[in-house]
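Appendix B. Raw example, untouched.
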Amino acid sequence: MADSITLDAANAAEDGFSLPAAIEDPAVLTFDAAVVSARHVGKPLFENLKALLNGRVASNQYLHTWVCGAEAVGDPMRVSANDTLTQALATTSGNAQCIGFIRYKPTAISCLLAHFYRKTGLAGGTAGAPVYLTDAGGYSAAPGTIPRVVGMWANATVALLVATPLLCQPTLTSILAFAPVAKIANYQILSQDSGKTFSNHLAPGTITFTFPAVPQDGHKNKIRRSTAQPVVLDFQGINARYGELAGTSFTLYTNGEAVVEYDPDSNVWFVESLSAAQSGLI
């Protein structure tokens, strides 16, 4: 009869492998009444598997056990104390410093992280559009208080997440510029939207981006017309200038981009560059 090798769950690989209680292999043991610990047979095997996982280019796992709380698998996490994680939130720049996503929880108060994660069961996404961290620590097509990009939508319900703490810095407009926020209906731009890029991707008709009535010093946005529908920039009565042209609204009739920035000294919105064919300020 084959001898049994009882596996020690504590020595299982940290990637959440599911192991049977025992394995039967007549080729492993040839002496009677032998007892072989998984520490000597099972562990080296799984250590080799772990080394292979960790040796991949851009390995998706931090092979370190962190202290955490009641967070669940797939939640975004940030460092809150020595070797301790808590859920990342888009409420402040500090809270939005997501370094990874829970991959596995060996216990109720410990976890392992993944740098990349495929999150299912979501809603409201558009394939290719950015995924944002929410103020509650979830994922959405709309940004939270801090515009923290944490990945890209694969489809309406699946997000491909990647943890890059630099993306949570709202002043890094050059980084945020690669991820425009698509709008398919009229949108009121808010003060906290400064630095964001907006587009009319998939808009069914003309949409209007309305700028703040009381803009802050240096408020700046890039408006991208990527769908063949007119895009109106409404400055709510505040003068806007492009070269020698002046007015209180502007319309993009062909695909391209407009970059506008508010100057508080002159109380004017300046169109700094314009790649779309301009029709004049109207």
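End of appendix B.
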